[in-house]
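Might I ask for a little of your time on a matter of protein folding? What I wish to show you is a protein chain and, alongside it, a tokenised description of its three-dimensional fold. I should value your view on which stretches of the chain appear to form regular backbone elements. You will find the record immediately after this paragraph:
***
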Amino acid sequence: MTLPHRTSVVFGSAFVDIRDPHNGLGNPFAVVMGADVGAWDVGQRQELARRTGTPETVFIDAVREQRGPDGPYEYELNLTVLTPTGRALGVCAHGFIGAAHTLAEAGLAKPGHDLLITTSAGGSARASLPRTRTVMLHFVSQEPRITHGHEQALEKIFHLPLPSLADGLPVLSVGSPKLTIEVTPATFARLRRELDSLNYDRLMALQRELDINGIHLFCRNSTTSLPEHVIQVNAYLGRSLVVDRATGVSSAAQVSADPHVSDGQELQIAQYTQAGRSAVLTLTKGKSRNVYVGGAAVLVDHRTLQ
């Protein structure tokens, strides 16, 4: 498949409210598309990722149509996903959703078909191209790893004590590892109020020490015990974007490992920043570490690079 000769950057937002896509919910993305983008070097990509102003910039390196009628997917999409600090991500749910919408809107892929997404950092996911506005992503979660001895570091990052960590904390991943912390609803409310005073430098140090792409904090519904509200912080997004607006991969990893969520169960989780609710994520837990994340997107701007 031939990508457009002229390189362009498409801006949009994913995990928006499908009924009212311009109501402010969702997470911004930038998708870079053009015939020569696959040949760009690391420096060119990092420079543009710093300039887009979005939490992640997605570079479409190649799109290939599946040969033969009986394959499991119709397209293979190769991406590079960079944060503003130049960090390459293995997976990025809202970036994947943005890339799928961009291809469909450009007429380069047919809505209603499946595609395999792979990234230069070694991540992968299956996705359905939007027949309406929703893309479904299919991930397989990895075996959790447990970390110990970070209580003081976490208290200095968030400026409040967290629940007992005697049993350690899991790092959960569907391709982008997150330190995952369950808190009470009362602690969650306090966390939201304290996010402006979060210690960015200590967060960056802990992420580098543990080789993680952020910290995922969640609380449960007091009646159903299902995960209900989440906050995600990631120093690799830069100081101004450190509180992530929507993080499908961290909620996917958490739901996949959650004993309170049954196989086949669908649930919605609200994500928050300092300003309030920023996204609503729809997830379904599958069997054998499979998990599905659905999200809609809106494209808001298209710029051609000179």
